[in-house]
Amino acid sequence: MEPHPSLESLARELAASPPSLGPVRLIGVDGHAGSGKSTFAGRLAELMGAPVLHLDDVASHEELFGWQERLRAQVLEPLGEGRPAHFAPYDWVERRFGPPRVLEPAPVVLVEGVGAGRRALRPHLAWLLWMETPRAQSWGRGRNRDGVELSDFWDGWERAERAHFSSDPSRPFADILIRQSGTGYEWSSGTGATAGSPASVTERDELPRA
After folding, report:
1. How confident is the model over 12-24, as pLDDT tens digits?
2. Is 24 helix (H, G, I), strand (E, B) or coil?
3. Torsion-angle region of residue 34: left (phi > 0), alpha (psi -120 to 50) or beta?
4. 68/198 Cα distance (integer angstroms)
5. CATH H superfamily, domain 7-204
6. Which residue has the higher pLDDT, 158 or 24?
């Protein structure tokens, strides 16, 4: 056994799981806004050669969390049938949906964003990963990243995220909890993990961005 199992070992374990959505192994990466989901999902996707669906492309100003039916129709149903999905990513500056993009039914597809582990999506996930960064710390990082120009948006976002996780929490169902440490990432089995999963493994690498 490796003294410090690498992120590659986690990627291999995830890729070895049975398909969960037609031919696809759909892996959710959830957590508070600003918790490092995008960076971690990007690192994992690079190792796995997997595409990433960002839920920021599915949500909108009018529907911060009311996007589940759009996701079902545009992404889940076609992938579940082994067909390419076509979705129109939202432009947060222009406040409109842009030209369609194609998401192929790859062996592994990562879906990252706040709400990736929501009730409507969990039955289709092979794994649910939760970024174990405290809410206040995550939101602080997000506000610092986006600047004072978006402070009003963040005020509304925080209220919406509180309401979402209050009615539809993800963390209790996570298979793996991902933490950031001084040496990179650490992860451990979550409350939703299957019996026999390793208790804790650590990846030593540079810290991700918010």
Report:
1. 999 999 999 999 9
2. strand
3. left
4. 32
5. P-loop containing nucleotide triphosphate hydrolases (3.40.50.300)
6. 24
